[in-house]
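To the wet lab folks,

You asked to see what we're planning to order before we commit. Fair enough. Below is the target structure as tokens, and below that is the sequence we designed to fit it. If anything looks off to you, flag it before the synthesis order goes out.
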């Protein structure tokens, strides 16, 4: 892949990379179309990265569908699929990790120790291997995007990070490969994530500024679903991810949440504003 990227860049070709863990859905495909419009050579990476999974998480059962992914990739105009195996990404003796300190600490980072070190490290490797000028990431994984944007600035990585809005089902559920773990009744209940975010957003639009009240409005909607177990709901500064007590006019804030249905952990988020 590195040799191919070198050849392409020598010929002046613009490369865009869309990193994924596969089992592609319409959210991934939207990222691919965004990438397609910004490059000559569209590279899709598929790698279920073991170092971003914790003990007892779903690494072993993470859904995979290589044939389906290749078919979808072709239909989105992907030129190259880079799908390494774990052994070639992490050869014996591997010991280097990238750590984006503060942005990795709260929210999902607090519940999944080491997760964002795994993410930052593998994205660094993927950028070094695929050598894209453009890389596309989804806002669905809001903290991940914040970590990667910071890392690219801090390490002077020569790539443009493009952010893509959350793609949702018609009923509001954010598309995720993990949605396939949900039972029918959990799938029906899972719309409460979006509805909770909407409740907080609507309350903000009516003039509520108190972070605790906005968070409570969201929690109450989710807590009405007996199968939903809240991991966290937090209002944070959209860039630094620091806590905010009040939604000040003009401030950029994000309401981020994680909710379990049985063992399945879903995440979602929304930007909130005063109008
Ligand atoms: P994953 O395969 O889950 O690691 O996701 C690969 C990329 O797709 C990440 O940049 C995600 O943020 C993005 N992504 C996943 N789901 C969605 C979605 N529903 N809308 C937009 N982007 C998404």
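Sequence we intend to order:
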């Amino acid at each position: 892949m590195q040799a191919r990227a070198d050849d392409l860049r020598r010929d002046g070709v613009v490369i865009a990379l869309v990193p994924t863990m596969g089992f592609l859905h319409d959210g991934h495909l939207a990222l691919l179309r965004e990438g397609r419009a910004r490059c000559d050579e569209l590279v899709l990476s598929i790698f279920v990265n073991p170092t971003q999974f914790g003990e007892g998480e779903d690494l072993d059962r993470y859904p995979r569908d290589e044939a389906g992914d290749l078919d979808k990739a072709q239909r989105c105009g992907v030129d190259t699929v880079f799908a390494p195996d774990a052994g070639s990404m992490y050869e014996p003796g591997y010991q280097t990790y990238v750590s984006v300190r503060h942005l990795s600490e709260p929210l999902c980072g607090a519940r999944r120790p080491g997760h964002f070190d795994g993410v930052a490290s593998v994205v660094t490797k993927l950028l070094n291997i695929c050598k894209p000028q453009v890389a596309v990431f989804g806002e669905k994984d809001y903290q991940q995007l914040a970590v990667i944007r910071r890392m690219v600035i801090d390490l002077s990585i020569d790539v443009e990070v493009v952010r893509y809005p959350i793609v949702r089902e018609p009923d509001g559920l954010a598309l995720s490969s993990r949605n396939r773990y949900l039972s029918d009744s959990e799938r029906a209940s899972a719309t409460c994530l979006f509805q909770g975010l909407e409740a907080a957003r609507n309350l903000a639009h009516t003039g509520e500024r108190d972070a605790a009240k906005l968070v409570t409005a969201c929690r109450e909607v989710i807590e009405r679903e007996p199968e939903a177990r809240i991991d966290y709901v937090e209002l944070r500064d959209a860039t630094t991810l620091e806590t905010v007590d009040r939604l000040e006019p003009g401030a950029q804030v994000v309401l981020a949440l994680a909710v379990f249905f049985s063992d399945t952990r879903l995440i979602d988020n929304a930007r909130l504003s005063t109008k």
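Structural context that might help your review: The longest helix spans residues 115-130. Residues 20-21, 27-28, 31, 137-138, 140-141, 164, 166-167, 174-177 surround adenosine monophosphate (CB under 6 Å).

Thanks,
Computational group
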